[in-house]
Design goal:
Layout: E1 10-17, E2 38-39, E3 43-45, E4 51-60, E5 65-75, E6 78-82, H1 89-99, E7 103-109, E8 116-122, E9 130-131, E10 143-149, E11 162-165, E12 174-175, E13 177-178, E14 196-201, E15 207-219, E16 230-236, E17 241-242
Antiparallel strand pairs: 1-2, 1-7, 3-6, 4-5, 6-16, 7-15, 8-9, 8-14, 9-12, 10-11, 10-14, 11-13, 15-16, 15-17
């Protein structure tokens, strides 16, 4: 068991999106957002995020008891508090979302300040093998991002794109990756020009993605020595994809 701090968490807003007919999303629905995410800075308090089932109850005369079953799923509004930063691109887009009636893509990386980060070597092979000297401590399914130092990654991998650790070939110091959790292992076909490569990985289950609508913005009051903050209400309108 590993305890994870809320401190260091980051929240991102993507672009406007159309809700799917079945109100269900998966990781593939967020692929186009990889180059669109804007971090909403100045985050001071994170609201709770998650689904709850509506309760359906039925009274039984002969048993003198009420039985409850789960009904439709619904996510409560997430109340997030931010320190106003007028020129922050993420806060500007969040304000645009409040002023519109459109749904947007959202991503939260919980406890991002505790991410695992370090230099790696990537082989040119099928599949490519990533070696993390000293050990990586990652689990199958962990999301990983590679960043080249003054050059390019091996052909087959893209800098800044999220990949996922596979169970196959997973050892204390090496692993393979796929474009989606549990997908096909990625192969590299040519060496890159980077003088160094850094990998950064979030723990499994600490990244949440969803489509939702920004409903409101309010400013707090208080006595003289109270910092002015803005509370934004974000309501998920789809399931929450946990990575």
């Amino acid at each position: 068991m590993v305890l994870q701090s809320v401190g260091g968490s980051k929240i991102y807003i993507g672009t406007r999106v159309a809700l799917p007919a079945d109100l269900t999303v998966d990781l593939t629905d967020f692929a186009a957002q990889e180059t669109e995410w804007l971090q909403i800075k100045g985050w001071t308090n994170a609201g709770a995020l998650g689904d709850a089932s509506e309760a359906i109850t039925q009274n039984f005369i002969d048993a003198d008891r009420t039985v409850t079953i789960g009904g439709t799923k619904n996510s409560a509004e997430q109340q997030n508090v931010f320190s106003p930063i007028p020129n922050d691109p993420g806060q500007k887009r969040l304000k645009e979302a409040v002023d519109s009636c459109a749904n947007y893509a959202f991503k939260i990386e919980w406890g991002a300040g505790c991410l695992t980060q370090g230099p790696v070597a990537i082989s040119v092979a099928s599949p490519a093998v990533i070696t993390w000297p000293g050990g990586h401590g990652l689990e199958a399914g962990s999301p990983v991002v590679f960043t080249p130092g003054s050059g390019t990654l091996p052909t087959g991998l893209t800098a800044g794109t999220v990949y996922y650790v596979l169970p196959t070939g997973l050892t204390a110091k090496t692993f393979q990756v796929s474009a989606t959790p549990g997908g096909s292992a990625i192969a590299t076909t040519a060496a890159g020009t980077a003088t160094s490569i850094t990998a950064a990985a979030q723990p499994v289950g600490m990244t949440d993605l969803f489509y939702g609508i920004a409903l409101s913005k309010s400013k707090n009051g208080g006595e003289a020595n109270t910092a002015q903050m803005a509370t934004h209400s974000i309501k998920p309108n789809t399931n929450i994809v946990e990575v």
